[in-house]
Design a protein that fits this description.
With 662 residues, the protein is mainly α. It has 31 helices and 2 strands. Strand 1 and strand 2 form a beta hairpin. Helix 1 packs antiparallel against helix 2, helix 7 packs across helix 10 and helix 11 packs parallel to helix 19. The longest helix has 35 residues.
Length: 662
């Protein structure tokens, strides 16, 4: 599983990475420190304290040169093969990759001066072109080891697409490019290996990975869980509501779905089962809460930073736009749980078993200050590059000063080694994915495909959105969310933007639908991971996750049809749409679960139960869907129609729930 927010699909039970011997662990730790120092130097413009400033390409290749060779040390050629030792051929690949990247750093200024991205095969020394071809192959092999065979196969084919693009039928046809010219573009341009994914990693992602790992190793998980238990553990269905808050808080910082399930789920799932939730339902709630965390600010995982690079906007703008959809999703989870707990007459956990809020704050108050600093730097001061480093520094100082769990040398080693493994995995995956972007940039195919998709859809935005949702879902089954997002950001997003949809809403739409596969069978990685903790049927857990997290399938359509829900537009429009969305989500949850607070148990409606529930679901969706934009009805007309449908259903359900049993 991934710990870096990309959560690659897993193919078998063999370990993906090696247990390193002491010398290689030392190398990993030292190289990790070097990569952090290099990034810190670049972000704070320290110039190595000797007035030396690196070009961007020098910096990127230096970072690749430190981390990418370690992919051949950490990941064996085949899962389970040489799991406890590094064979000679992997050492050779490590040295070869290191040597080539050192050469690329050394020639970066000459490359920029002479335009090697287009002319290296004509003007550069022969060994440089040979090195470019080798680097292309090494990047693909590192991707195969870190990201899996499916991702490797897709990127290998698309990275080689310029070689045979002239033989493809329309609309895929474009002039073919020779092998050496293609290799030169992949390696020497800023559009391929050093493209948007790698730039996002080097400029932003690496700092937030350090911050997320620091949170993990300073006990933030226990603090967030205890805080959630103290706050709402006593409410009906309290253990499940704890799962929402704790998984949402921790996951939004770590940006990883699967590791979040396996971290917080070990505490929340048993508590849910003890208070009356069925095992499959408990696992489903945890899976949904962890999946939503990657869509919630302030951190959101690697994909959101890449989105900011694609859109060429500050990350703070992406985080703010994502806040309202994430809030709607978590509100829907809360209401679903409240409806389940009310229907089954569940109680909360006994107060004497819960931690006291005062004690929780006394032990972990400094986490609150760290998060406040992070949010201020991100959203107020707009210092995205500085924010994670300064928040991490404050966290470590406060932890060493006030915490009972101060780090020793062993903790520092674990922290550095954990960061190093995450860095290596991400740089291998993002470098390989960048080859796809480079191939389409070199051939100019993006514009051709945009026109082709528009022609196929008849310029119909709704049809394009449906095509995009289905494509995102199916790609999300076999690819990491980051790879899925980048693939569709290159191929599909331009078409949706060209028909007039808001760019931020479009990119968030793609990200949301790429995440859907985490809780949707047959893949449902988050649900299946939670089922192992809950000791429940994986498929039942997945089906329950679909039901409990149902709003995730609709929210992307809501905000892309009318972008006021991603804070694009007038404030009055947003206030109206958000208010009706909250009402609609509440009604939908009542219809799905057959119980609504203030109305009662819809199961007492006899033969009218299912018609009433259907009316509530449809009417609730009409409340939640903002009128205007692509919608055929105005906001007032949509709300009026929703009221006409739901109000009679609510009144009938209320009166039926209060009938005396015959």
């Amino acid at each position: 599983m991934s710990e870096a927010g990309i959560d690659a699909p897993e193919g078998d039970d063999q370990p993906r990475s090696r247990q390193l011997s002491l010398p290689w662990r030392v190398v990993l730790i030292v190289w990790t420190v070097l990569s952090m120092a290099l990034c810190f130097n670049q972000q704070f413009t320290l110039r190595f304290f000797i007035d030396l400033t690196l070009l961007d390409t020098e910096y990127y290749w230096a970072l690749v040169g430190i981390l990418l060779p370690l992919a051949f040390i950490i990941y064996p050629a085949k899962r389970g093969l040489h799991a406890d030792r590094v064979p000679f051929y992997d050492v050779a690949l490590f040295l070869l990759t290191t040597g080539i990247t050192v050469a690329l750093v050394a020639t970066a200024r000459r490359s920029a001066l002479e335009g090697w991205e287009y002319s290296a095969h004509m003007v550069a020394p022969g060994w440089v072109v040979a090195a470019a071809v080798m680097m292309w192959l090494l990047a693909l092999e590192a991707l195969r080891r870190a990201g899996g065979f499916v991702l490797f196969a897709i990127m290998a084919v698309f990275s080689a697409f310029p070689l045979f693009s002239g033989m493809m039928p329309p609309p895929l046809t474009s002039p073919s490019v020779e092998l050496l010219e293609t290799a030169s573009y992949h390696i020497f341009s800023r559009e391929s290996v050093l493209g948007i994914p790698m730039r996002a990693f080097a400029e932003l992602v690496i700092g937030f990975l350090v911050f997320g790992t620091a949170l993990q190793y300073t006990g933030a998980g226990a603090f967030f869980i205890n805080f959630a238990f103290a706050l709402c553990g006593h409410l009906r269905g309290g253990a499940a509501k704890v799962a929402i808050f704790s998984s949402g808080l921790l996951g939004s910082m770590s940006g990883s779905v699967i590791s979040n399930v396996l971290t917080t789920g070990t505490m929340t799932i048993p508590a849910m089962k003890r208070t009356g939730f069925r095992p499959a339902t408990a696992g489903a709630i945890e899976a949904c809460a962890s999946t939503g965390a990657v869509l919630a600010p302030p951190v959101m995982g690697a994909t959101a930073f890449i989105m900011a690079e694609f859109l060429n906007i500050p990350y703070a703008t992406v985080a703010l736009a994502a806040a309202v959809p994430a809030l709607l999703f978590y509100f829907a989870l809360f209401m679903q749980i409240d409806c389940i707990a009310g229907r089954e007459a569940m109680k909360g956990l006994p107060r004497e078993e819960l931690p006291k809020l005062g004690d929780v704050f006394r032990e972990g108050w400094y986490f609150i200050f760290v998060i406040i600093l992070l949010v201020v730097l991100l959203l107020v001061m707009k210092r995205e590059n500085w924010a994670p480093w300064m928040a991490t520094a404050l966290l470590l100082v406060l932890n060493q000063t006030f915490s009972k769990h101060r780090w020793g040398w062993a903790d520092l080693v674990k922290f550095l080694e954990g960061n190093g493994r995450v860095f290596v995995e991400l740089i291998a995956v993002l470098g390989g994915i960048g080859l796809l972007v480079g191939a389409f940039s070199l051939t100019g195919l993006t514009g051709t495909l945009t026109n082709g998709l528009l022609y196929m859809a008849g310029n119909d935005p709704l049809l394009l959105l449906l095509m995009g949702a289905l494509t995102s879902f199916f790609l999300g089954m076999g690819m990491t969310i980051t790879a899925c997002y980048i693939f569709l950001a290159v191929l599909l997003a331009p078409s949706l933007i060209k028909v007039g949809l808001d760019p931020i809403a479009v990119h968030l739409f793609i990200m949301y639908w790429g995440m859907v596969s985490f809780i949707t069978p047959p893949v449902a990685l988050a649900a299946f991971a939670a089922s192992s903790v809950a000791k429940a049927s994986p498929m039942q857990t997945g089906l329950q996750a679909m039901k409990i997290g149902a709003i995730i399938y609709f929210v992307p359509f809501f905000f892309v049809m009318n972008p006021s829900l991603v804070l694009q537009g007038e404030m009055l429009d947003f206030i109206g749409h958000f208010a009706t969305a909250l009402i609609g989500v509440s009604v939908v949850c009542g219809g799905l679960q057959g119980y609504l607070a203030g109305v009662g148990d819809l199961r007492r409606s006899g033969l009218l139960e299912w018609p009433l529930r259907a009316a509530l679901v449809v009417g609730g969706l009409m409340f939640a869907a903002p009128g205007g934009g692509l919608m055929p009805l105005s906001p007032v007309e949509m709300t009026t129609a929703a009221t006409i449908l739901t109000l009679p259903a609510l009144l009938i359900a209320w009166s039926m729930a209060r009938r005396r049993p015959i």
